[in-house]
From TrEMBL:
The name this protein goes by in its record: Cardiolipin synthase
CDD domains, alphabetized: PLDc_CLS_1, PLDc_CLS_2
Coiled coil: none
Compartments in which it is found: Cell membrane
GO biological process: cardiolipin biosynthetic process
Organism this protein belongs to: Cytobacillus depressus
Superkingdom of source: Bacteria
Amino acid sequence: MRKRRIEFLIAFILIISFYLILFTQLPLEIKAVIFLLYTATLMISIYSLMLENRSPQHTLLWIYVLVFFPVFGYLFYLFSGQLYLKGYLFKSKRKRDRDEWKKLLQQESLPDFSFLQDTQHSFIKFASIASPTPISTESRAIILKNGEETFSEIKKGLMEAKSFIHMEYYIYRSDRLGKEIFSILIEKAKNGVEVLFMVDAVGSRKMAIEDIQAMKNAGIQVQSFSPLKYGFFNQKINFRNHRKIIVIDGKVGFVGGLNVGVEYLGEDETIGFWRDTHMLVKGEAVYSLHTVFLLDWEYVSGGKVLQKYSSFQSDIDEDVLDGAVQVVASGPDTQQGLMSDFYFSMIASATKSIWIASPYFVPDEAIRTALRVAAAKGIEVRIMVPEINDGFLTQYASRSYFPELLRYGAEIYAYKKGFLHQKIIIVDGNLASLGTANMDMRSFHLNFEVNVFLYGTSTIRDLVAHYEEDMEHSEKISPVQYYKRGFIERSKESFARLFSGVL
């Protein structure tokens, strides 16, 4: 809060100084003093920027913006230039979450991973250090393909709830599907089931007020993540909760790429068929997923609910357990760039194949390098993206990265059946990631995300089979033809790439 006041004070001084110098008839001597004040204030801003220890390129870029675009440059910096900060905006949440994870889930020793292959062992060593969440060998993951299968399971699980339903979504619409789930939640709440319902303030801004009120009247607790109280000047506006989590009775959890809305069932005529992947989890992984939700809930509500659900008893038949499962939360409340580190480590551990499906493919430099090196070494690198994206910038920014990958032998496929929205990475057919995080800068640095990492589970075979099916509806991009694309297409790509840092 103190830092924000200082920033607004600097902005106020710059604006007033700029106005007095250019638009008033004050004596030159007074204007000279005001100019010195303006320059001193600008130097303080630049010095503060240098202390952030960004890359030299980013630091110089923002210095140019601050110097050559008076006032407007600083306002733009406040809004988007600080997106790479080390997280002071969520410092208290990050510290508290870290302490709670250590207290609730700290493991004295890792489970027996002798059944895993060598490459999985190397990745698991990284994962056990990078994230405080445990790697469980007492969990089960079930892949849910597309909206029809996913929402059928979700509604079934909700109707069977006996103790509590905890739900967190980025986008929740008040359409037919949304109202169907609302009615289940309201009925359950009236029957004594505890329902905690949380949505992102931006993603779900179009939720009907009457639906929210109906839930509250039924006894459902409703919270909005990071409300837009301060409009443009609230720096938190860019940090959104992109997580999709449902936990039912502490026994079943849902997580993946699907929000709640009829378009995710493929019923939006403009979008058409929607290709996505979700997951149902049971066992210890539910506890980790639940903890992610509870930490978010305590942050937005100010209440204390963690201790109420601090115990967990798995009721899974050990005969159905296989492999290992890890729930990993990332965002401003964790180590910066955590999900990017996980993706990079997965790619770097590959010896045979790397299969990626992502609707928004805007990789950072480390991941691009890892993919290029892997392809050059003869590892099969496949990247699947939608043929048509839902935004100009994401469409062409993604394409701007194709040439360097194609040049090194990576294969890129354009999914043509509909809109591809799943976020999947499969390495060597025995290590996989599925969740909410796209392969872009927004998911790596701005959004609160949650993924499930699978180590040698049988469900990876389902992901492999689904990926191969998706390839039948995809067209491989020819390097020769792509290099022949016109000047206009290249210009669009170059322009869109400028915005990669906030996509």
